[in-house]
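ugh ok so i messed up the first submission bc i forgot one of the chains. this is the corrected input, ALL of the components this time, i swear. 598 residues overall. if the numbers dont match what u have on ur side tell me asap before i send this to the collaborators (the ones from the other lab, u know who)
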Amino acid sequence: MNLIVCVKQIIDPETPAAAFKIDPEAKRAIPPKDRPLVISDYDEVAVEAAIRVKEAQGGKITVLSLGSQSATEVIKHCLAMGADEGILLSDPLFEEEDRSITAYALAMAIKKIGDFDLIFCGRQEGDWDAGQVGLGIAEILGIPSVTPVKKVEVKDGTALVERVVADGYEVIETPLPALVAVSSELGVPRYPTMKGIMMAAKKKVDTWTAQDIGADSTRLGPSGAKVKMLKLFIPVHEAKCEFVEAESPEEAGANLAVKLREAKLI
Amino acid sequence: MAEYKGVLICGELLEGQLASITAELLGIGRKLADDLGQELSAVLIGSGISPAAQECIYYGADKVYVIDNPLLEEYLTDSYVSALEKLIREVTPDILLLGQTSMGRDLAPRLAYRLDTGVTLDCVDLAIDPDTKLMQQTKPVYGGNAQAVYVCEAKPQMATIRAKSMSPLERDESRKGEVVSFDPALETSAIRGKVVDRIKEEVVGIKLEDADIVVCGGRGIGGPEGFKQLEELAQLLKGAVGATRPPCDNEWVPPHYQIGLTGKLVAPTLYVGVALSGSSQHLAGMSGSKNIVAINKDPEANIFSVAHYGVVGDYKKVLPAFIEKCKALLAG
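and heres the new structure output, hopefully the right one now
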């Protein structure tokens, strides 16, 4: 089977709120100096999902990432987990943070890769939380999609996919090729093994530009953006916390109960 | 060149009645329509749904389109995207709103790409810019650490709204409006995929989203055993138990316990967070809580930046004492 995974490199979402800073002019978050960039959470689960399908069905996993040269680290991480090949999409024309542009670029890259049975991506990116690019890729390629997904099994040329819904899940049967947007309920992504890391280090990650993928430049850059960001800001938290003082944790617990009772909350 | 006019909301039904998100969509839809001096319409998609159409009018719609077809009994991406696409091309609304729900988060992006327009998902605020007359769309980003305001010049302008972030209007049976049937001429061959099974998670006791008191445990609980104490506290206070993502990912508790950006949204009168750091992703799911109490051994934990009451200490020592005192106070 030909499996493709789309991944994104982002600022670590575990960055403590106190260390999180934005540049209101550039309308981006400022990468904290002491924290490395990471693979978007759900994208890592998507890699795990692809590896499970490869283990069951055999085949090849190609990892695709649209970003700057530093995104190569994230691609290598996916190779170390068990993906086979990695491709970086990098071009100034891709830099506009617009879902239409990202989806179009990734879709054109996938067309260049050629045959595919299943495309995996995370249900939403850990920075902008939009959750649209995967579905956009599916729409541009004209294939069915399922989101958000907690299990993927392939059987007789179709995929049986468990889709998370508000009060449980649905089992959807979808013809291939298809795209699945994976959620963390699928499971914890496996740690790369030493062997995996060494093999990944030896692999070359190609870089493709807008020209390489045959992209129509009018669909890229500022003219290709459908949605414009007017403003990025950090909302101010106004709550002031009343800390319960006590000699011991046990006393604090008891005092807390009294305080809440006095406030008529319990 | 079609003229794009009017606000259209895509409503949802729950067991034949309007789902709460529908009234919320009509509430914000009415406000946007009034600011623009335009009409507010609603569309309902499904099978055997016509009786609910009038309810949309009572909650603010001037017109309701009903797309009623047995093929639409269950939500499927292809059939619903196609049905709504056909209506949009016919009606050409200026603004199209959906809920950030299982249906909305799937339908909206594909529809936006198909209509060659943009969409902003999970909006917590929508407003008309007085100068440009465009809809400004505000949504949390970076897991809730920041908020971004977007605008789209392509039409229709599309957005999904976060549940419980917009207020419905008062239901008014004297409101008048028009109900219109719409046939999207669905092609069955274009519907790929089908639902082969549906599994409902067993929820024992009060539903998390509806509970007035929520007790929530985080990574610091350490394992499934610690959650038993939280269950005890929740039972005592007649509330529900929730969790942040790590306990769910680690399978200490079932997945439907998750409160957060991609979990449940809660806004109870009392929220007690035990051994959780308060990541932005989690705050996004509970920051609407009226009174927030936090117990954590780390004084720098982010949860204290939103809490009203806090105890810095090991929950294993604080919580049992807290529960015992609650029992005594409630008995007396």
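quick check: Chain B has a mean pLDDT of 94. that seems consistent at least. Chain B touches chain A through 91 residues (CB under 8 Å).
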